[in-house]
């Protein structure tokens, strides 16, 4: 009788445990697998547990030795991550942590390749110039090194003169200079002579396939005369590559090498130095990469040279003259261009083969193959319009006129496109047909931001057959000039801490607006302690200048300046008085420029400008000394009498930059450095000689545009807003400046819709 009771209790227990049974089984299986994995990782059964690593007689196993505080024992490269708690010593003063300027510096990234070219007095103006014109622009950084003293530097070259023409001394000083100035910035250093032609793209491709963690001394390996066969140096005539790690290890021994090693050739001296102190010999092959070279014989014709060794050469030596350097560059450029075209054709063929496997099928293949499809507008406002042109005229002009002469870059663009169209037609239909152009009937072009410039040409052609029969026909062709690889142009570093010197020219007609300008200046710069100063330029008419002792037309402005200086004791606002009938912007700037240091950042303002910190910061960031000047396009509000017609002016933030336009006719505002202005002004003075009347037809913008090689950054500036005011246009200025001033006033009245409503209301009022 007890057995059934026990069975019932067992059944009840199993029923109670059934819900948690999967959990128990899972835990058991997990623990078993963990124990199994631990036994595999520890190896054989003779090894001890991690806790027994420090016991006497314990053998080393899979566990890593640790100190008592949990840190790994020094000497082991395998580190375990750990959290370091922040601790600040209360007895030491707090120091702000200074971060690096660029994240690239903080992460320890380096630029890839630095190139040094060794030149001499005899070849500085010949072979070195040829190197600079052929391959210098392909390398990220290239410097020329010479032993001359005070050598005259050819245009566009950066030259380092050591002052000693001895070859060994030049090599020693060059290596020392490279380590001191660029040793921490670059991973690879390529050293060549100016009688060497190097394929820049091939050299750059070579360093991308080499590891930077090794000591590399790569070039054309040569044996020392009477030396060990295993010890080789890199021939300097064919260039050689040195890694950063090798340069860092070599630098402490350069002085010893200079004093102890005797050699006639600088490349042998450097190779002996590297071998003696570092034990590293030159190699021509490393990590699967070959350094191919070719020794150029006399009277060699590069165009006829068909040796495989010549075609694959990274460096060619010796180059006897500039003409040979240019011929080599043309030959190797043609080879690279052929390889690029062949690669494009192979990629296009692969795209055609794979298109049939896509969901869209062959219908999804775009033209040209491999180029993005044309932009598809989603509304009529997104349609990209075509510009019509002929061989003589363009019917969409930058100044808004309906027709203008085709000239400059546009004319060259049209001529090149027509030639390319004929070349493509002849390559497709020859030898059956040969085409020649009679006339361009119609031409259309548009810029598609997704793919590039598109062209459609209607050509009147003369087709000639193989038998000499000719026929005139019209044919339409389509061409695309695709967007090339986007290149990021490095810009010099600037900060927002630069002091801005505001310059405000004032005439009698501007007196009604000075109070508002000074109030905005005080509120947005003086109250916020912004690093900005103000200089006023009082422009007196000769009649007012004669009566200044009795009646000073600028007395009220000077009183307001005095009040500001009393309110802000640390602020001084100087002014300069000028007497003239024609207030030329260039003449006025000449006066201001002489009274300020050369490193002054000027902001040439107008009396209607409302100064704010946001714009001043952009003025600082967009103006770069010896590089770029900034001419902002201010936002001009419309005439409220025409826009609102008696209604209340909208003041909400959603209406910001709504009732107005960016005044592209005005060049009154400008940001530039005094040094840049003085340089451009000197070139202008040499051009016009003593004809000062030319300055009356020019603005500061024209000076920088025609007489400086700086970037002119012209962009709309939403932070520079001006209230509506009718400007007074001086008829004594040049016709172009007067016309621009009148256009600015007319376009600043109101938009077309506002003007139409005003005319409509006026006609209704007249009809009643």
TrEMBL record:
Primary enzyme class: transferase
Predominant cellular place of this UniProt entry's protein: Golgi
Annotated region described as Disordered, given as residue ranges: 45-71
GO cellular component labels: Golgi cisterna membrane
EC number: 2.4.1.-
Keyword list, A-Z: Glycoprotein, Golgi apparatus, Membrane, Signal, Signal-anchor, Transferase, Transmembrane, Transmembrane helix
Any matching Pfam family: CHGN
Signal peptide span: 1-22
Subcellular location: Golgi apparatus, Golgi stack membrane
Membrane topology classification: Single-pass type II membrane protein
Alphabetized GO MF terms: glucuronosyl-N-acetylgalactosaminyl-proteoglycan 4-beta-N-acetylgalactosaminyltransferase activity; N-acetylgalactosaminyl-proteoglycan 3-beta-glucuronosyltransferase activity
Entry's family note: Belongs to the chondroitin N-acetylgalactosaminyltransferase family.
Record-given protein name: Hexosyltransferase
Protein's organism: Stercorarius parasiticus (Parasitic jaeger)
